[in-house]
Amino acid sequence: xxxxxxxxxxxxxxxxxxxxxxxxxxxxxxxxxxxxxxxxxxxxxxxxxxxxxxxxxxxxxxxxxxxxxxxxxxxxxxxxxxxxxxxxxxxxxxxxxxxxxxxxxxxxxxxxxxxxxxxxxxxxxxxxxxxxxxxxxxxxxxxxxxxxxxxxxxxxxxxxxxxxxxxxxxxxxxxxxxxxxxxxxxxxxxxxxxxxxxxxxxxxxxxxxxxxxxxxxxxxxxxxxxxxxxxxxxxxxxxxxxxxxxxxxxxxxxxxxxxxxxxxxxxxxxxxxxxxxxxxxxxxxxxxxxxxxxxxxxxxxxxxxxxxxxxxxxxxxxxxxxxxxxxxxxxxxxxxxxxxxxxxxxxxxxxxxxxxxxxxxxxxxxxxxxxxxxxxxxxxxxxxxxxxxxxxxxxxxxxxxxxxxxxxxxxxxxxxxxx
Length: 419
What we know:
Blueprint: E1 6-11, H1 28-41, E2 46-51, H2 57-67, E3 75-76, H3 80-92, H4 97-120, E4 129-132, H5 139-143, E5 148-153, H6 157-160, H7 170-178, E6 185-188, H8 191-200, E7 209-211, H9 227-233, E8 241-246, H10 255-268, E9 274-279, H11 284-295, E10 304-308, H12 315-321, E11 324-327, H13 336-343, E12 348-351, H14 356-360, E13 365-367, H15 372-384, H16 386-400, H17 405-418
Parallel strand pairs: 1-2, 1-4, 2-3, 4-5, 5-6, 6-7, 8-9, 8-11, 9-10, 11-12, 12-13
Helix pairs in contact: 1-17, 3-4, 10-15, 13-16
């Protein structure tokens, strides 16, 4: 007799960005959700259905046709009326203002009525477990008796004032932090993050939390194919070596120090055969600060190449052909890019702060993020010693092989299915 499958409702709101590859929101947490969804779908001991918040529902509905073309999974939301209203507000307010305001006024009473209805008469979900990789459980989930709730937490950045509170996503993450309840169970992406949440949030403790490490996507492996096309696409000078960095352009990523010390490194050693390639989405407030810092580098500013958003299929090629990868952040909840780089055989330099030592271990050079001297010294070690680069390349490949999303999903489900 077959065991009864556990019914899991998974919040995939963040995957609404799948249909919009240029969005900066397609960052680490997006790919975490996508990879875990793929792993859950391989399991034959669970019955999976999907949830999207009203602010994301219309985007998710479009996106799942791309990421799950052959699947027919039930997609829930609290109110399709509220979802349509949110979609309209997000997409049409700049097209024709007059019609936008007229239609908004007409739709608003209906949306308010629907919102009140979902609050006082929340819908029932055919599930035993609710799992979110990003958001706190909505009211309808919290009010359903017998529905166990599990949330994957990524970092405590907003409450630690690591960056300006007005930047994108901070307000949302603060709301998430404030709404965490003791009744939920929490997974964290590193032991450092778990201890941070235990320290700063009274509703999270040793008993209701567990560390489950993440992984790089399967597509990250050494690749030398089509490098000439990729180099040309991103305007990397032909015949030049390059150092690679990939992250959202924001203050905690330490980019200004990374760039300045790179220039000091090439000035000190009189080098003209290497450039610094910087990829990743941009936050407007920091974009101006970074641009000013690069402009101040005078004749060396052409050594810094900002390539912006990198398409998924190009990333393994850029990692694989870089001399080394730099990621000396001030704070990370996990730090996927160094793991991706190691999976491609690229030597890495990371900071010895927060979660990064858990990810990289002894497979990369670890330095103090606030030390100019240690940055320059690390660059010199890799530049002048190809044997050392090869050694760290092998170490990185071995280290990265210890991480997988199958392992992550298995550890998550072991807890969810046993409670």
